Amino acid sequence: GGLEFQSQIEIISRAHHKHVASLVGVCIDGDKRLLVYEYADNNSLAFYLHGSEVATMDWATRMRIAIGAANGLAYLHDDFSCGQQRMKRLWKEYIPKIG
């Protein structure tokens, strides 16, 4: 519901890590919700992974990006200690959820 969404936004807005895009704004209009994150220039990761031969990344760069993404996820799901953080059991796997 709405209160759970607002609670999650408060938690996400306090997350600051070099491998996590910062939340800079939120817009709620009825049932529509929009999250605004900091601008990341230089096109998308998909473009550099699968784009033209000029833009395609070498494997060392891909590994650095993958490790950075993993560090960001670890921060959000392990290191970001907050009293409201919890785990929910869905299907047969545990899927972390901030909330």
TrEMBL record:
Q: How does it sit in the membrane?
A: Single-pass membrane protein
Does the record bear Zinc-finger in its keywords?
A: no
Q: Which domain of life is it from?
A: Eukaryota
Please give the catalytic activity noted in the UniProt record: L-threonyl-[protein] + ATP = O-phospho-L-threonyl-[protein] + ADP + H(+); L-seryl-[protein] + ATP = O-phospho-L-seryl-[protein] + ADP + H(+)
Q: Where is the Protein kinase domain?
A: 1-99
Q: What Enzyme Commission number(s) does the record list for this chain?
A: 2.7.11.1
Localization: Cell membrane
Q: What class of enzyme is it?
A: transferase
According to its UniProt record, where is this protein mainly located? membrane
Q: Which residues form the signal peptide?
A: none
An example molecular function term from Gene Ontology annotations: protein serine/threonine kinase activity
Q: Which PROSITE patterns match?
A: PROTEIN_KINASE_DOM
Q: Give the matching InterPro entries.
A: Kinase-like_dom_sf, PERK1-13-like, Prot_kinase_dom, Ser-Thr/Tyr_kinase_cat_dom
One GO cellular component term noted in the UniProt record for this chain: plasma membrane
* UniProt feature coiled coil, ranges: none
What keywords tag this UniProt record?
ATP-binding, Kinase, Membrane, Nucleotide-binding, Receptor, Serine/threonine-protein kinase, Transferase, Transmembrane, Transmembrane helix
Q: Kindly provide the name given to this protein in its UniProt entry.
A: non-specific serine/threonine protein kinase
This protein's species is Opuntia streptacantha (Prickly pear cactus)
